[in-house]
Amino acid sequence: MKKKLLLITMAISIGMTACGSEKLETTDNADSNSIEITDNDSSDADMELSEDAVTDSSEDITSDVGDENANESAIGDLSSEIKAKVEGIQASGCTLQEELEQVESLEAAYTDIAAETQMEMNMVASYGTEVWDAELNGLWKRMSNELDATTKEKVLKEQREWNEIKEKAAKGMTTMYEGGSIQPMIYAQELANINKNRCYVLASIYAKKLGQSVKIPARKEYGAYIDNQGTGDVYSELYIYEGQESGSAFADIGIYKLTTFHGDVTKTSDGYDFEDQEGRVKGKITYSNEGASFEVTESAAGLANVGDKYEFPWAF
Hints:
Order of helices and strands: HHHHHHHEEEEEEEEE
Structural class: alpha+beta
Mean pLDDT: 81
Keywords: Signal
Number of domains: 2
Distance between the termini: 33 Å
Strand content: 15-25%
């Protein structure tokens, strides 16, 4: 564990040197206030785009822990430590692309900390969520001062919707683990990935303002897609899960809170072919970073109409 903690410090220091001369320092008194966006907030520049509270912590991920209880000592509430490291990366003078790459390395360093018990594994998984939560808020604090009023208003509206449904999307991706001891870990991993995806979206918007470019990673094969009808509620949902057998996958599709289909999916060149478990409905799923769609190709009477196409504009 001692070696792991020191490697985290070395990895970040090397990255900082590559982008600027400013050093990344560890602090224990990082600002612990997280502000939720509401329609009544008057100071957009000071808002944080996520709802996850950031709390102070006395733990130091770079501390030289050398006793036999090092693993137990190192795993705990590291929120303020994580936030300080992310803020150091943001202040280093990197391009946005370099910044995101460094934050990805930071996430990997934290989530690779050795854990023995399931409780420790759950805690370590949550570090990834906190890393991208801090990056998300830091991006907004900078870009909110530079975006034009129209773009800023559009981003705020989208972010309010995203905040309201992101946890529902993450929970939807863990339904098969409901009640199990690993559900918190899987949930944290899904939420971290959701936060990461959103960071890339915001960074790509900000990059245009700065005359830079950000390459959004290719969409993973598995994920959540939501139609919220412009509200904070879920009206239709599509979840694509990895199956237990190698190369297998399945999906849950909920349409307008009225009909739900569960079945296997087969990968194609442009998406998935879907067939529900009872063979009543078949369709075509397409997906991208911009959302997903499900088009009915075959259907038993009354369940759906052939040719109907359902859109899921939020990709998580």
